[in-house]
Amino acid sequence: MDPSTTHPLLGVTGTTAQVAISAPSTAVPGDDQPTVILIFGWLGAKMATLRKYGDAYTRLYPSSTQVIVQADPLRYWKFGRGRERAVLPAVHKLEQMNLLSAPPQGPPPRILIHAMSNGGVMSLFDTAAVLRRKNIHPPTGTKCAIIFDSAPAPPTLPLTIRAFTASTRGRLRKLLATGILTVVYFLIFVVRTILRRPRPLAQEIAALNDPALLPWTSAKTPRMYFYSTGDVIVPSTAVEEHAAKARMAGFPVEMINFGKSAHVSHARDNPEKYWEAVRTFWSGAMRR
After folding, report:
1. Fold of domain 9-155+208-286
2. Distance between alpha carbon 205 and the CA centroid of its chain, in Å?
3. Contact of 138 with 215, CB cutoff 8 Å
4. Rounded to whole angstroms, how far apart are CA atoms 181 and 170?
5. What residues have CB less than 8 Å from 234, skipping those under 6 apart?
6. What does the pLDDT look like over 139-188, one tens digit per residue?
7. Does residue 288 contact residue 171 with C-beta atoms inside 8 Å?
8. Which residues cross the membrane (predicted)?
9. What is the rounded CA–CA span in Å between residue 66 and residue 72?
10. What is the pTM of this model?
11. Which residue from 51, 96, 95 is spatially nearest to 69, judged by alpha carbons?
12. Which of 19, 162, 175, 275 has the fewest CB atoms within 10 Å, i.e. the most exposed one?
């Protein structure tokens, strides 16, 4: 998915994110390919890194349009419409593709969503919040499947510190960053309490198990959880607990534990297993 490929990119800068959109070389995806793949990156992920996922998806589904949403680390500390503005380019692209209300010229849309870490969950939630304020009537027969990659985890202070200091080198720098994060976390907690706002991610994580999260989702929407016991930022127990609640809500749930691989490193450490799981999951979802 670089400019030299047959998939031209349109980069759109938002207030806290950048959205990259790839247009496929063929007009209509085959019956076994997604119409659109929405990739919501983790906090602080560089677009160049996220495009590597796009490249892999292009090899699997060359006729699918891709929309990649980057999440700046500052996104974690914001709430309300300020966060939502960053996903507007992605929503506009979905509108242009007639995925929101207009009848499609061809088969019903097929939508694959890939949310990475809690940052991806936040972008997914923000997109859903924007869509809820629109009069959305997706075409009859629209299908959707969701992959949660290294997500979700509760918004505790220790996990927040691990997430924001994972790439920090040096003991002194890490201690300084931990101190600053602790103060900021406490101050924002006080402000949110006064304003009666939910803690960061609390509302988002709860919303994931709402069958009506998106216009195309229901309790029948299949989901896959990619996680690992080696992830120190999003514990495997947190993912397993959320998946169990999803099953109780009626969702078809699949899970793959990648063992020792680190946070959002499953595709890098186990590429064959990872992308075969994506292919198998999507194929099964389309047979439902």
Report:
1. Rossmann fold (3.40.50)
2. 12
3. yes
4. 16
5. 117, 118, 150, 151, 152, 153, 159, 227, 263
6. 888 899 999 999 998 776 666 666 666 666 777 777 776 676 677 666 66
7. no
8. 175-195
9. 19
10. 0.82
11. 51
12. 175
Distance (Å) of CA 236 to CA 10, 19, 244, 271: 36, 29, 12, 20
> What letter would DSSP give residue 229?
T
143 residue type, one letter: K
* Max CA separation in the chain (angstroms): 59
User: In this structure, what DSSP letter does residue 115 have?
Assistant: E
CA distance 96 to 214: 17
**What residue spans define the domains of the chain?**
9-155+208-286, 156-199
CA distances from 31 to 64, 115, 182, 283 (A): 11, 23, 50, 10
Q: At a CB cut-off of 8 Å and minimum separation 6, what does 284 contact?
A: 222
> Concatenated DSSP letters for 158-226?
HHHHHHHHTT--SHHHHHHHHHHHHHHHHHHHHHHHHHTPPPTTHHHHHHTT-TTSSTT--TT--EEEE
